[in-house]
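Checklist before submission:
- one chain only
- standard amino acids only
- sequence pasted in full

Submission:
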Amino acid sequence: MKCRVCRGPAVVDVRRANANFCPDHFLRFCRDQVDRAIGEFAMIAPGDRVLVAVSGGKDSLAVWDLLLELGHDVEGFYVGLGIGDYSDVSGQHARRFAASRGLVLHEVDLPEEYGFDIPEGSRAARRAPCSACGTSKRHLFDRAAIEGGFDVLVTGHNLDDEAAVLFGNVLHWQTDYLARQAPVLPASNGFPRKVKPLVRLSERETAAYCIVKGIDYLVEECPMSAGNKHIGYKDALNDIELRSPGTKADFYFGFLRRAAEQFRSGATGGDAAGLGRCDRCGSPSEAELCAFCRLVDRATTDRHSRSVPPAPVEIQLGTTRSNEDPR
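Returned file contents:
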């Protein structure tokens, strides 16, 4: 197996591109794909301050590293979710990555600062763990970006993630979700600008990037994700991709080119401009309390058998760099 570019020994095959790459040219391929996505969808402008949502997994660490390679001003933000050893290990990976490169990593610990963890929040709210987790992370990432004065919030969603979400939304014809499915969500009414620079790289490719680059990442899946429909959609698409390489990219980018605008123009809900503000934390909300504050109420009431929730926490973004001992 030889590299398509230099004809040297290849270490990675990219079947959808019918190409093999040596380590150096594979890393260049990944950088080019991310740079192309940023340019194609106008994700990040020169001089933008960028905040990356960091989990300690391959995608968030890969995108952080790739953005730095491309010369962007990037800091990280990690949320401790209180999911036992899994959260402990994920935080260690995030801190080690930042420490090894002298980067800024901001942190919020959900149990310490809001009085509940994801298992408790899920039980109290009678919601699936992934729902309680998603509500918490979206709220905290959004607030951190807004209050920290960042221009862009980056998430590590890759091609597999986006194709699986699209697959599920099409199967159930979730038209309002389809209207909002895009690599870029513009800033509006208290929401930060959100972008997904990894949409041109698969999950396998981001894992290979970390291995070739020597980035140590959390390999284990979240123990609370069992039964998540998203994983089933990924598995189904992987079976199709195995038989027909390139299907996931054709499906996702074909939607963006041919159908996305039609769903956006026909959307009936989800208009951020029409949202009010949460009475407690001030975040955009359709109700008096946003979804996160309602989750806090249910979880802390259940945990402490009281009805008065803790006061809202102002997210303080620290400036500790990695030449100090990681927390």
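Reviewer check: The first strand starts at residue 12 and ends at 14.
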